[in-house]
Amino acid sequence: MKQVLTRTGILLILPLSAPASAGAQRLAYPTPPRSDVVDDYHGTRVADPYRTLENPDAPETRAWIDAENQVTEAFLAQVPARAALRRRLTALWNYPRFGAPFHRGGRYFFEKNDGLQNQAVLYRQATLTAEPEVLLDPNGLSADGTVALSALAVSEDGARLAYGTSASGSDWQEFHVRDVATGRDLGDRLRWIKFSGASWTHDGAGFFYSRYPEATGTPGDALTAVNRFQKLYYHRLGDDQSVDALVYERPDQPDWGINGDVTDDGRYLILTIWLGTDRRNRVYYLDLQDKASPRVQGKVVQLLDEFDASYGVVGNDGPVFYVVTDLDAPRRRLVAIDIRRPERSNWREIIPPGDDVLESVQIIHDTFVANYLHDAHSRVRLYSLDGRLQRELTLPTLGTVGSITGERKDAEMFYAFTSFLYPTTIFRYDFRTAATTVFKAPQLDFDASRYETEQVFYTSKDGTRVPMFLTHRKGIVLDGSNATYLYGYGGFNISLTPSFSIGVLAWLELGGVFAEANLRGGGEYGEDWHQAGMHEKKQNVFDDFIAAAEYLIARKYTSPARLAIGGGSNGGLLVGAVMTQRPDLFGAALPAVGVMDMLRFHKFTIGWAWVTEYGSADSAEQFPYLYKYSPLHNLNPGTAYPATFVTTADHDDRVVPGHSFKFTAALQAAQGGPQPILIQIETKAGHGAGKPTSKVIEEQADRWAFLVKALGLTVTLGG
Asked: Could you say which of 168, 569, 616, 660 is catalytic?
């Protein structure tokens, strides 16, 4: 593939000055509002001078936001490479991207972004070769592209589409219903929905969904208020939401989440009962009895009620439920449970546990399609319904399989494959011929043949072997001079696997190394790996990340002055923790939407749900280890901290922006060196999901521009 800038004879080389700290004067930062708040945690008094910044609507907070954004914009405006980075990122981003199609009611549905559209468009088509027709274009839902599709569910007959929208990146959703044939919306409008999809009954009369009580107070109150008492409802088309049928609630358990999914045969409603981010859950069911005229209210049977493991129902043959579980199997297995004889002694193991992590199972063409993780990259195996291995799919390279689509009756399935240098490609697998073909392959202006990805393993502080992916130019010189961006997450059983990123491509063109570490706390090696980075063991995650940095330095990939670190959400916490523990190890830090106040995170929106992962300062036993690593509470005045670029959004209702606000104010006050401490606050965005393409490009260009200045890079793009 040729590159736009090279083909036109333009090679952007913009020599810059030395790193931001060299000869630089300290920036003048806005004065944040302060208070004399002091909290007592089990006898330990902890000051919280920037408590006012927790209120995003307070006049003092709004003034501080505006002033901080002005400081940041003035700094970035002086980086000559900023405009060139935006142009190059825009050129790289401008290629068609497809989602895996799915089949319902005689039609195919898929999402596509032409290139620079702010949101992907949903299409329908009668056959795979027919001309696609636009079914829903979210780009027309708002002038600036900040309203995104958040949920999609097509009825069994393909006649109706239930879809959710989210504004400005909020977790709050509104559900609507569209007629597939006409492309027009019906009058249905459902609100106060969060952490829920829609699941249709097979008669097409309506769908199940979950919602919270209506929020009261100001919009700011709705943004920060704690979310509890989720309930499961059934909405019948044409009805007002106020008369929706209440299917299940637990007023005695306000923290329980309740989601409902109808089985493929239309006979049962599976209720998944969850508590925060704990991987353990309960499974109940409601017998709908007749799919042609389902009974949507009735006795809910508590099938798996011990809350002792994770359970996921992937399908059924009548009363026999197929369940993926980590009970007695930290890397998961598939079992069959006959609900007429549900005792564990009667369970039948279909796919036993193995060395690889069983990520997911689907039933397509009467075949179990099992997606595994092997050393943090994908393997896909096909099993018969009695558990016999039929074959393993051959994948293009070390990478990730996601978005596997297909129904039990289908003779084909589609899946998306991606890797660091392999743009997301859609493959079609034919079960009748066992043939795999490329269905949709993107073409973009980037010569991937000049780069390579390698997987290395390094040793953490306690001797644990940790994997890490490295992507860089072929023939890289290991002399310690390479600008390196080390990315991590390490929490909530979430695995970091190879994925394609336009932002990373631009970093590679800058001559950078991209490193992705698979830290404990994630799911790369199953539940044991996850638990090794939870609660009082959270320091293992930080030690793993620090060890990754030390490996890169020891092997001469980079040096501290050329090493930047980044991560978002729980990964933002990671960055905040390691930069306060080892400020000498990094040249720059980019914490995004991070959880920075580990003593108060559980007091806002869905933050209480993370107690199962982190612990809570309300516990005398858990407070000490939270206080010990909480980024906000471990800043030491006079310390020379690395150049830092904090990013957040004032509409983030998952990790509320007060975390980043307070951390930035405290870090600016504590900074003893000349390196800049900046924050960029999006004023119409949320936690990141559904962010319009234009905003993504702008933000990525600003991140790289900051690193260009902070690390003292020379910019070469398109060469």
From this structure: 569
